[in-house]
UniProtKB/TrEMBL annotation:
Domain of life: Eukaryota
Name this protein carries in UniProt: Ribulose-phosphate 3-epimerase
Keyword terms: Carbohydrate metabolism, Cobalt, Isomerase, Manganese, Metal-binding, Zinc
Residues of the active site: 37 (proton acceptor), 201 (proton donor)
Recorded catalytic activity of this chain's protein: D-ribulose 5-phosphate = D-xylulose 5-phosphate
BP-aspect Gene Ontology terms: carbohydrate metabolic process; pentose-phosphate shunt
Organism this protein belongs to: Ascobolus immersus RN42
HAMAP family assigned: RPE (MF_02227)
Enzyme Commission number: 5.1.3.1
Annotated InterPro entries: Aldolase_TIM, Ribul_P_3_epim, Ribul_P_3_epim-like, RibuloseP-bd_barrel
UniProt keyword Electron transport present: no
Recorded metabolic or biological pathway in which this protein acts: Carbohydrate degradation; pentose phosphate pathway; D-xylulose 5-phosphate from D-ribulose 5-phosphate (non-oxidative stage): step 1/1
CDD domains: RPE
């Protein structure tokens, strides 16, 4: 399994002082990425923020490449944008301009049954062309079987995703209960792709991290568990230790 990447979800932070919260969670609490939840009120029944707000926080957060003892590199301050939007193809340029590093769209929104739609592989190519990493997310009810053909693209230029996000709650809100039944999907992905970044999102915290780590997840999103903690730095460290041990 690749190294742990701890990505606090800023959805659980105080939006009134968002930029400060982001800086603190990285500089003081030791987080790696920022998980930025973008919701459009269509794909999910909630609205959060758009590219203009991402632009503002990008101004205050510099990126820094850190090399671990085993030689693996992690970029601190990397913006992991989780796009819970009905038309993911529509926002890629805006998000690139705003400073997004990884554009993670939902398979369900890029699926051929949607209209208008851009198929996942085309979307991944478009995201890569703009110089961002591409992620593909699946809701709890979506089988990983939809991903095998997409993951079979071996080269970046062919539309290979850089990360898969296995949702462990129904997307839309923070603070929900972790769904253990999603773990076989993580295990199936890890078995076939030992080096893939596999992200889990929803209900992750000290009581659920071991299950997720055992299944093979390495990119850990945590909103409430980090921002709601008395000692966020200890939570970040413990999440990391559970994955890296
Ligand atoms: C839910 C979002 C999550 C959420 C996680 O739709 O994608 O990123 O903020 O929050 P917690 O960690 O509180 O479940
Ligand atoms: Zn998310």
């Amino acid at each position: 399994t690749p190294r742990a990447i701890i990505a606090p979800s800023i959805l659980a932070s105080d939006f009134g002082k968002l930029s400060q919260e982001c800086t603190t969670v990285i500089k003081q609490h030791g987080a790696d990425w920022l998980h930025i939840d973008i919701m459009d009120g269509h794909f999910v029944p909630n609205i959060t923020i758009g590219a203009p707000v991402v632009t503002c926080i990008r101004k205050d957060i510099e990126k820094e490449v850190v090399t671990h003892s085993n030689g693996e590199k992690v970029t601190k301050g990397f913006f992991d944008c989780h796009m819970m939007v009905a038309e993911p193809q529509r926002w890629i340029e805006d998000f690139k301009k705003a400073g997004c590093d990884l554009y993670c769209f939902h398979y369900e929104a890029a699926d051929a049954s949607q209209n208008p739609h851009t198929p996942p592989v085309q979307l991944i190519k478009d995201i890569h062309k703009l110089g961002m990493k591409a992620g593909i997310a699946v809701k709890p009810g979506t089988s990983v079987d939809v991903l095998w053909d997409i993951l079979a693209n071996e080269k970046e230029g062919e539309g290979r995703p850089d990360m898969v996000l296995v949702m462990t709650v129904e997307p839309g809100f923070g603070g929900q209960k972790f769904m253990h039944e999603c773990m076989p999907k993580v295990a199936a992905l890890r078995e076939k792709y030992p080096d893939l970044d596999i992200e889990v999102d929803g209900g992750l915290g000290l009581s659920t991290i071991d299950t997720a780590a055992e299944a093979g997840a390495n990119v850990i999103v945590a909103g409430t568990a980090v921002f709601g903690a008395d000692s966020p730095g200890e939570v970040v460290a413990q999440l990391r230790a559970a994955v890296d041990s």
